[in-house]
Design a protein that fits this description.
Elements: H1 2-8, E1 25-27, E2 33-35, H2 36-44, H3 68-89, E3 112-114, E4 119-121, H4 123-131, H5 133-136, E5 140-141, E6 161-163, E7 168-170, H6 174-177, E8 184-186, H7 187-295, H8 300-309, H9 334-361, E9 379-381, E10 387-390, E11 410-411, E12 421-426, E13 433-439, E14 456-462, E15 466-469, E16 475-477, E17 485-491, E18 496-501, E19 506-511, E20 520-525, E21 538-541
Antiparallel strand pairs: 1-2, 3-4, 3-5, 6-7, 6-8, 9-10, 10-21, 11-20, 12-17, 12-21, 13-14, 13-20, 14-15, 15-16, 17-18, 18-19
Helix pairs in contact: 7-9
C-alpha cells in the first residue's frame, strides 16, 4: 500500500540536486536520497561533507551504496511513465492506416516504412533507424502497405532501377539477366522526371479547371443575359398588349358611339316627321269640327253664306306623305371599318416589334462565304465568295462527292451547331431564288426535294412574284412587298429557322419545332438563268449595311 502511494507521486522519485528522476539512488546516514553521481560531485566541490537537504554534517564521507529497494521502485516508475507516454503519443492503427510490423499484440500506427528492411515502424520501433549509424543509411518513406511489392519477383531484390525500354521498375540483377540491351536509370532520376511531368500535368489540369470555371461564369452570365432578355421581352409584351387592349377598348367605344349616333339621327328625323304629322292632324281635326258644327246648323241662309264665304268644304293645306318614310339606319361596314382600324394599329405594333427583333437578331451575324467545292458546275462564284449567279456553261471543277449535281445550288463554307446565327442575302432584280439552311448529310446528287424531311429549311421565289415556304406541305406566302434583302436567322437549340424582309422589317416565315442533330450549312440557289430576267447574282451582304 505504501509502495503504491509512493509510486503515485512523481516528486518522491526526483533528486533534489538535479531535479530529475533518480539514477542509481543512494541514501545518506540522515535518511535523504540522491543520485549517486549528484551527491558525490556535490561533496567533491564542497568544503564540508554535509546533507544538502537537512545540512547534517559528517566527520568522514559516508560510504554510499545504491538503495536497491528505491532503485527498483524508480525502475517501475520509469516503465510506468514510458507506457503512459507511449500510449498518449502513439495511436493504435485504424482501418486504412499502415500498422507497425514489429508491434506484438496491439498494432500501433506506423510512422515510416524502410525500403531496405521492407518493414513499417511505429515511433518506438523506429528509434534504431534514427540512432544506429548502420540503420541511418536506410531509405525511409511515409508508411506504405505491401512493401513486398517493392521487391523484384524474379530475383527477390529491391526495385532500385527503372527500365526506360519496358517502362517498368527492376532490381540490380535485371539489367544483367533479363534486360541486357535496355536503357536504365536510377529510380530517383526517373522519379524526378515523372515529378516534372506530373507538375506539367497538374498545370494542364489546373488550366482545364480554370477554363471550366470561366465556362461556368460564361454560362451564368448567359443565364443573366437570358433573364434580362426575358424581362425585356415581358415588358415589351405587356406594353404592346396594353396598347392593343386600349386600342380595342377605344375601337369598341367608338363603334358603339357611331352606332348610337346613327340611331339618334334616325330617331330625330322620325320625331320631326311625327311632330309635323301631328300638327297637320290637329289642323284637320279643327277643320273637321267646324264642318260638323256647320252641318248641324238649321239656318239655311247662314249655312249657305258661311260655305260661300270660306273654304270650309276644302281640307287645310297638307304635305304629300306618300313618298315620305324613315328607313332604318344602315350599320353595314361599321364593325368592319373599326376592325380594319384595329388591324392597322396591330400592324404598326407588329412592325415596331419586328424592327426591335431584327436589331437583336443582327447581333448574331456571322461571316458566311460560299463553298466552291459544293457549287454546281454551272454556278459562278465571285472571288471573295460572296456572290453567285448561274452561267451558261459548266465550270472546270472536279466533280467531288460534296458537289451538287444537277441541282443549281451551293452551300456556305461555314457550318454551325448548337449556336444561333444570322446572315443577310440581297435578292433584288431576280425572278427566282432559294434561300435557307441544310443539314450536312443531305443528298447532293440527282434531283433533290427541298423539304425539312429531306434536310432543307428554305423559302423560294418563282416566276417573279410567287413566294413559297418549302415546308411539309409547302405554304404559299402573301407578301405586301417584294423583299430586296432577306435575313436568315437560326436558333439551333430551339429548332427555329426564320426569314425576314430586312428593309420592310417584316417576318416572312418561320419553321418551328425543327429537330437539328447535325451541322447546318447556309444554302443558296440563284435559280436557272433562261435570260436577262434572272441573271442577277445572290449577294451575301454585310449585316446592317443597306
Amino acid at each position: 500500500m505504501a509502495a503504491a502511494n509512493y509510486l503515485s507521486s512523481e516528486d518522491q522519485f526526483l533528486c533534489s540536486i538535479c531535479l530529475d528522476v533518480f539514477t542509481d539512488p543512494v541514501t545518506t546516514p540522515c535518511g535523504h536520497n540522491f543520485c549517486k553521481n549528484c551527491i558525490t560531485e556535490h561533496w567533491n566541490t564542497s568544503d564540508r561533507c554535509q546533507c544538502p537537504m537537512c545540512k547534517e554534517g559528517f566527520n568522514t564521507r559516508p560510504d554510499l551504496r545504491v538503495n536497491t529497494l528505491l532503485s527498483e521502485m524508480v525502475a517501475q516508475f520509469r516503465q510506468s511513465a514510458q507506457q503512459k507516454t507511449s500510449s498518449s503519443e502513439q495511436q493504435e492503427s485504424k482501418p486504412g492506416e499502415v500498422p507497425c510490423d514489429v508491434c506484438t499484440g496491439t498494432k500501433l500506427k506506423a510512422l515510416k516504412s524502410c525500403l531496405v528492411c521492407l518493414a513499417s515502424y511505429c515511433e518506438t520501433h523506429l528509434e534504431p533507424h534514427l540512432t544506429a549509424s548502420r540503420l541511418k543509411r536506410h531509405q525511409l518513406i511515409d508508411p506504405v502497405e505491401n512493401l513486398e511489392d517493392r521487391m523484384c519477383t524474379k530475383h527477390d531484390k529491391p526495385l532500385e532501377l527503372f527500365c526506360k525500354t519496358d517502362q517498368t521498375c527492376v532490381c540490380m540483377l535485371c539489367p544483367v539477366l533479363d534486360h541486357k540491351t535496355h536503357e536504365f536509370v536510377p529510380l530517383k532520376e526517373e522519379y524526378e522526371g515523372k515529378k516534372v511531368e506530373l507538375k506539367k500535368t497538374e498545370a494542364e489540369i489546373q488550366q482545364m479547371i480554370q477554363k471550366r470555371r470561366l465556362k461556368i461564369q460564361e454560362i451564368k452570365h448567359s443565364v443573366d443575359l437570358s433573364e434580362e432578355d426575358a424581362d425585356r421581352e415581358k415588358a415589351e409584351g405587356v406594353q404592346v398588349f396594353t396598347a392593343l387592349k386600349e386600342s380595342v377598348e377605344r375601337g369598341q367605344a367608338n363603334l358603339i358611339d357611331t352606332i348610337k349616333e346613327k340611331q339618334k339621327r334616325n330617331e330625330k328625323q322620325a320625331e320631326a316627321f311625327i311632330k309635323e304629322l301631328e300638327q297637320e292632324i290637329s289642323e284637320l281635326m279643327k277643320r273637321s269640327t267646324e264642318v260638323v258644327q256647320l252641318s248641324l246648323s238649321e239656318d239655311h241662309l247662314h249655312l249657305l253664306q258661311s260655305v260661300q264665304s270660306s273654304n270650309i268644304h276644302h281640307p287645310p293645306p297638307t304635305k304629300d306623305w306618300t313618298k315620305v318614310s324613315v328607313p332604318p339606319a344602315s350599320y353595314e361596314g361599321t364593325v368592319r371599318r373599326a376592325v380594319a382600324q384595329l388591324e392597322e394599329t396591330l400592324s404598326k405594333e407588329i412592325k415596331k416589334l419586328v424592327e426591335a427583333e431584327l436589331k437583336r437578331i443582327q447581333k448574331f451575324a456571322v461571316d458566311v462565304t460560299l463553298d466552291p467545292d459544293t457549287a454546281n458546275l454551272k454556278l459562278i462564284l465571285s472571288a471573295d465568295g460572296k456572290q453567285v449567279h448561274t452561267g451558261k456553261v459548266q465550270q472546270l471543277r472536279p466533280n467531288n462527292p460534296e458537289r451538287f449535281s444537277p441541282t443549281l445550288c451551293v452551300l456556305g463554307t461555314q457550318s454551325f451547331s448548337s449556336e444561333n446565327f444570322y446572315y443577310e442575302v440581297q435578292v433584288k432584280i431576280k425572278s427566282g431564288w432559294d434561300l435557307g439552311v441544310a443539314r450536312e448529310s443531305i443528298n447532293r446528287k440527282g434531283q433533290i426535294s427541298l423539304s425539312p424531311q429531306d434536310g432543307y429549311w428554305t423559302i423560294c421565289l418563282r416566276n417573279g412574284n410567287e413566294y413559297e415556304a418549302l415546308d411539309d406541305p409547302s405554304v404559299s406566302l402573301s407578301l405586301k412587298s417584294q423583299p430586296q434583302k432577306v435575313g436568315v436567322f437560326v436558333v439551333y437549340e430551339e429548332g427555329l429557322v426564320s426569314f425576314y424582309d430586312v428593309d420592310a422589317a417584316a417576318l416572312i416565315y418561320s419553321f418551328t419545332g425543327c429537330s437539328f442533330k447535325e451541322n447546318l450549312f447556309p444554302y443558296f440557289s440563284p435559280g436557272p438563268n433562261p435570260g436577262v430576267k434572272n441573271s442577277a447574282p445572290l449577294i451575301i451582304s454585310p449585316v446592317g449595311v443597306n
